[in-house]
């Protein structure tokens, strides 16, 4: 019978929730509890229960856990400032915190995340959920309504359709950074990929096919948890072929295994190095993160005259699906290509353009 790994004992030995303790201690406890490690099987009931608890915590996506940690940190800092208990929390303190966050400029989305973070903190601690109190739900509803009346609505990133994408690609150079960014933009568009999916691509996920490349994503937001999904990246017939672009990048960078899209360090300025030469640039070994993908899209779009913030991490996916819609691709194929659970979600990604173009009642009256 296998015994527990002693190196994991401290990681899986979850301490009891520090109820009524200083906010800083509660914040530290949450950071550990949110990322529980599954213990090795030893046949005991205690280990099985700890494993089940750890699996339950891993149900939350990495980005969600990151957002919850930020929310709990903000909550604990605020409670510390005002000498209030962070755990268990009182509804009147939570609504005051949410109102304060709104007052300092947080968006409605951030307010809802703050409330969800506090809820998850109490869930992990095994205590009643104060966020279900009517005062909390009504306060959030009021913040959302006030924002709507003030004309504040979630701002979607613009769609990087083919014309927009070509405009961005044209001035990109052939150094390592340029080759990487060109491949990233084209693969992201052709596969209708999210920024997290782009950042996670590894060499073993790419498989040559007669018609192009088959990309296997170990996970995708719109697909059932634990299920991989395959995406066809067709070989193009123009200078903007995504398959040729990714092979060119990997060949120039010498990438044969591991992460496909990696950080590239420029040589220091003034050191006698040619900063545009691929030979003088240094390639990292680890994958870029999703935020870097968004920054690349924003930087490249701003370089050709787009206003800051207009394009972002969702622009490639929105652009690909909008381009497909404008070319008459059936919604079912678009939904499948975008890996969306419903047509309602797909609709959020489509940029409809001129509302009079193709109006269902045009010419009727």
Automatic annotation (TrEMBL):
Residues 152-365 form the Tyr recombinase domain. GO terms for biological process: DNA integration; DNA recombination. PROSITE patterns: CB (PS51900), TYR_RECOMBINASE (PS51898). Keywords: DNA integration, DNA recombination, DNA-binding, Plasmid. Residues 46-126 form the Core-binding (CB) domain. GO terms for molecular function: DNA binding. It holds the Pfam family Phage_int_SAM_1. It comes from the Bacteria. InterPro entries: CB, DNA_brk_join_enz, Integrase-like_cat_sf, Integrase_catalytic, Integrase_recombinase_N, Integrase_SAM-like_N, Phage_Integrase-like_Recomb. This is Site-specific integrase.
């Amino acid at each position: 019978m296998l015994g527990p790994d002693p190196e994991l004992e401290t990681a899986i030995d979850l301490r009891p929730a520090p109820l009524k303790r200083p906010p800083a201690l509660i914040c530290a406890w949450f950071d550990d509890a949110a990322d529980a490690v599954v213990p090795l099987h030893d046949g005991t009931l205690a280990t099985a229960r700890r494993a089940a608890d750890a699996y339950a915590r891993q149900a939350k996506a990495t980005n969600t856990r990151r957002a919850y940690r930020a929310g709990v940190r903000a909550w604990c800092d605020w409670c510390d400032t005002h000498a209030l208990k962070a755990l268990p929390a009182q509804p009147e303190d939570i609504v005051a915190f949410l109102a304060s966050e709104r007052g300092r400029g947080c968006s409605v989305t951030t307010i809802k995340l703050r409330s969800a973070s506090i809820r998850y903190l109490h869930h992990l601690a095994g205590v009643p959920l104060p966020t279900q109190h009517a005062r909390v739900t009504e306060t959030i509803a009021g913040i959302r309504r006030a924002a709507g009346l003030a004309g504040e609505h979630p701002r979607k990133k613009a769609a990087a359709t083919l014309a927009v994408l070509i405009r961005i690609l044209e001035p990109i150079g052939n150094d390592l950074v340029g080759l990487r960014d060109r491949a990233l933009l084209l693969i992201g568009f052709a596969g209708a990929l999210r920024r997290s999916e782009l950042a996670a691509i590894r060499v073993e996920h790419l498989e040559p096919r007669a018609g192009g490349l088959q990309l296997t994503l170990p996970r995708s937001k719109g697909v059932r948890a634990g299920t991989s999904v395959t995406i066809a990246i067709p070989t193009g017939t123009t200078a903007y072929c995504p398959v040729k672009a990714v092979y060119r990048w990997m060949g120039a960078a010498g990438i044969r295994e591991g992460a496909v899209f990696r950080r590239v360090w420029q040589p220091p300025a003034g050191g006698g190095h040619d900063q545009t030469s691929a030979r003088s640039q240094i390639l990292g070994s680890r994958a870029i993160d999703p935020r870097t993908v968004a920054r690349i899209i924003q930087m490249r779009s701003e370089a050709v005259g787009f206003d800051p913030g207009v394009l972002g991490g969702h622009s490639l996916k929105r652009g690909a699906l909008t381009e497909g819609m404008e070319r008459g691709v059936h919604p079912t194929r678009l939904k499948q290509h975008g890996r969306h659970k419903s047509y309602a979600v797909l609709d959020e990604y489509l940029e409809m353009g001129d509302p009079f173009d193709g109006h269902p009642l045009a010419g009727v009256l």
